[in-house]
Amino acid sequence: TDSDTADEAVRATCDDASTCKRFATSKGYWTDLYAQYFVRQIGERKAPEINRGYYGRVRGMNLLIDAFLKKTQCYCQVVNLGAGLDTTFWRLKDENIMPKKFFEVDFPMIVARKIHHINILLCCGVNLSLVQLSVSLTDGHSLDSDRYCIIGADLRDLPALEEKLKKFQINPELPTLFLSECVLVYMTPEKSSKLLNWVADTFPTAMFINYEQVNMNDRFGQIMIENLQRRQCNLAGVDVCQSLDSQKERFLSAGWESVNALDMMTVYSMLPWEDVARIERLEFLDEKELLHQLLQHYCICWAVKDKLSLGEASI
Ligand code: SAM
């Protein structure tokens, strides 16, 4: 059916994200010891502005994630929505800043692929220290262990999502960090707002970090939309991506207490300058203007609800 085709195109975006991240790490933009296990081939060359864009995205997300873990002293949960082949869990583990439990959710098909890779690693004895994690269940569709859990679910089906998270012992009373990195834009505004509402209603102490497109009204935004449409990929949620204000408003109207949003041009300019100077030496960038356009069309938005008064709003 048409909707199967549309979902398939959305699932394919998972490969875009992971191959771009894999390529950028192979060039030294940042270190990721685990990307290679989920994406075997380094793949074809990506343009320097794409690599710098991903650098800003990963560094920006990581700064906020780490701030939340610090604020809660890791006495918290993380739920990565539409996680794809993301490797954040392993980074936190290696840096000794693991939350009580780290959940990942994606379509069952993507989850099956990810678990397949993890199973191969386990069989081959690659030292991912998964043994330490005491994997208690990996049936191909979900993986559960004391600290790490991967769930196959459709984010548009909230009753099923809630049931699965409960089955794997999510604790709504614990401070919980939700992540969505280039995910909500593939859902209709109705569906994503229901999801944000459900999180706000269910988790009294929570932060939600959302990375996605913004300022999509102009010519450059139109080209971005057309590029995805050409691949049958419909940005169903693009109406929410008109401005930083519309991004903030979606959280406030879904019951979040306070919210911040920065475009990636601003985020990029706030990153530690020594490291930015380092990565800008990695590859020559001809098209500065193109990088700036790209950065202006993505944003990070973070919203909080702070029943336990942890001071999350200061993050
Ligand atoms: N967050 C990852 C990252 O940034 O590396 C992957 C991003 S990828 C662009 C979007 C991901 O969201 C895909 O893995 C896709 O399968 C997932 N996704 C989109 N809509 C979804 C839905 N309704 N239910 C579950 N997963 C979904």
Automatic annotation (TrEMBL):
Highest taxon of source: Eukaryota
Annotated GO CC locations: cytosol
EC number: 2.1.1.233
BP GO terms, sorted: methylation; regulation of signal transduction
Record key words, sorted: Methyltransferase, S-adenosyl-L-methionine, Transferase
Pfam families reported for this sequence: LCM
Ligand binding (S-adenosyl-L-methionine): 57, 82, 154-155, 181
Keyword Transferase annotated: yes
GO molecular function, one term: protein C-terminal leucine carboxyl O-methyltransferase activity
Alphabetized Gene3D superfamilies for the sequence: Vaccinia Virus protein VP39
Enzymatic reactions: [phosphatase 2A protein]-C-terminal L-leucine + S-adenosyl-L-methionine = [phosphatase 2A protein]-C-terminal L-leucine methyl ester + S-adenosyl-L-homocysteine
Biological role stated in the UniProt entry: Methylates the carboxyl group of the C-terminal leucine residue of protein phosphatase 2A catalytic subunits to form alpha-leucine ester residues.
Similarity section: Belongs to the methyltransferase superfamily. LCMT family.
Protein name: Leucine carboxyl methyltransferase 1
Species of origin: Cyprinus carpio carpio
